[in-house]
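Dear U.,

For the methods section draft, I wanted the exact inputs and outputs in one place so we can describe them consistently. I've listed the two proteins in the order they'll appear in the manuscript figures. Please don't edit the token lines directly; just add comments below if something needs changing.

First protein:
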Amino acid sequence: MIHFQHPHILWLLLMVPALVGLWIWLLRRNRKRLEQFADRSMFGRLIPDASAWRPSLKFGLIIAALAFLILAIANPQQGSKMVKGERLGSDISICLDISNSMMAEDIQPNRLERSKRTVTNLLNELGSDRISLIVFAGSSYVQMPLTNDYSAVKLFLDQIDCSMIEAQGTAIGDAIEKAMESFGYGDEDREWKKNQGRAIIVISDGENFEDDAEAAARKAAAEGVRVCTIGMGLAEGTPIPQYRGGQRVGYKRDNNGNTVTTHLDEATLTAIAHAGKGVYVRANNINSGVQEIVNMIEGLEKEHYGESMFSEYESRYQYPLVAALICLLAELLIFERRNRKFNIEKLLNNEN
């Protein structure tokens, strides 16, 4: 069975039908232009050396070479075998804001759903790191303890919504403390070892009203835990929709009847990341900043988590690469115009 190491590269194959369609359109346009000057039956006399099939054959070879090159870059692999290897990783705690302001729709479909997609993208980029999941609003709790079972994390992630915590607000500091507890900090039954192989990722709009999040991040950093933040939302501000029975019934209002707006507080999130010796990235509809966070995680110290069995594949990129080179070489050897000294059509006619 063929396995591609970089399957996302295969999307480039969509260029092939697009280029073929463009080529057909250009051929028809050029033929119509020629028909404006002479009848089709006169083309052979006016352009005696022109070939009807050589340009198309050369183009076909170039397109085939392009397709083979894309396949080579995607790196097809085959012949998986199980090998035993050392499992190294870091401990990562993801703190997800589920306060009502995360229902704002300044980024689509809303801040909370975009946050959950960001977590999923992050999990897809990680390897053997252990993950814990913390949800928070006015208070926080551990939704998923440390695990390397990413499928279970995604399953729990799908169930998260803003109704899970009744105490509304945004207590980022409490969430950071819960994340530290998920690492074993403060647990008398677990030995705490300070190292540089742990990180906390806070995903929030940054509107922190409950506690001193910077102090919590600074305390975590003192124990070797880096605190990173991902900002969800736009700074311009947007109302908070309210739903009943799955239907929007309006927007949240204050005691005076004014519509409440929520803003992305980048200053707070940046300050938390700075205190936690981490990085801050801003999410939007296009980019969730996952790669920058992944790069930071890859630079953390790795702990030994024992041995595990891994699938190992043998690369087969050489075959499409050779096929691409053969197509390009054939294209170079074929001329667009007919060869008068060696003409296959004339040879066939003489034999007849």
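Second protein (the one for the lower panel):
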Amino acid sequence: MSDLQTFAASLSKHIRDAERIAIMSHVSPDGDNLGSLDAMYGYLTGLDKDVVYIGNDDVPEDFTFLTYAKERVDVEELRDEVFDLLIALDSSDIDRFGDEGREIFLKAEKTANIDHHLSNDRFADINYVVPKATSTGEVLFRVLEALDARITPEMATALYTAISTDTGSFQYDSVDAETHRVVAKLYDAGCDHNIVVNAVYQSRSREKLALMTRVLSKIQFLASGKVAMVSCLLKDLEATGASSDDTEGIVEQLRNIKGVEMAVFLKEKQDEVKLSFRSKSYLNCIEFAEEFDGGGHVRAAGASAHVSIEKVEGKVRALVDEKIDAERA
């Protein structure tokens, strides 16, 4: 049997044996995180299983259209729970669940891990990780196919959300013919393309626009313009009335500048700085993220730092000087 068939058979047995199942992903949820969870919840509830959708962070407004987002149970309410099976999606390691989520994961009787991050450390009892896949949504689709699952229109919309958002709306070089074949099957299953486009790509608030305008006015160009870096401070959010979720998409705006090979976005939070790296063709974002104990993909990676944003900026500049040949065309 293939790795996929072996994993699907094992997962199917664990699902059959479990009375109470939980699903969870990383904090600071994105479209791949939420779309994958939504599809898995739809599949499991369709089997009449007792399923708990663990909510370990707030859902960004852009993704509240997803069918099962309203079913999330706050992680604080689940501290004493011991689940028969906990399925993790789109998480490279258990620390990404947050402190409460991590403890719940460690207490579960059986655990499964479905992901596409190269840095995934295979932390569960059973693991299916495909680093070459565009998204966890694409990986999950293959798992559901192997399980002979019926993909409902709601599940198809969720999986489309996952794949579309984690490919930059199909712009990244991880996209290939197989990706589009998966998407075609999602359309055949009743995917609502229009609701995704409207909610995710065509509903930018005035506050978000004000924040992007303010932040992008502070771009720093490094390595002869090959790297663009910008920081979003807490005072930027306060001045524009924007939320932390409204920073979504800023790093892609940086990367889309002509001549820029890598974009670096720093977001100041109360007790840490979040870093996002995106590249176009030859720089490995993982190499930069790992300097801050982060990880991800060659073209998209992230990390956190518990120092001032000024120190993070300084370290990024030093890394750019060290790692990038400024003479490269």
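Candidate sentences for the figure legend, describing the second protein: Residues 234 and 270 are 8 Å apart (CA to CA). The first strand starts at residue 20 and ends at 24.

Thanks,
Y.
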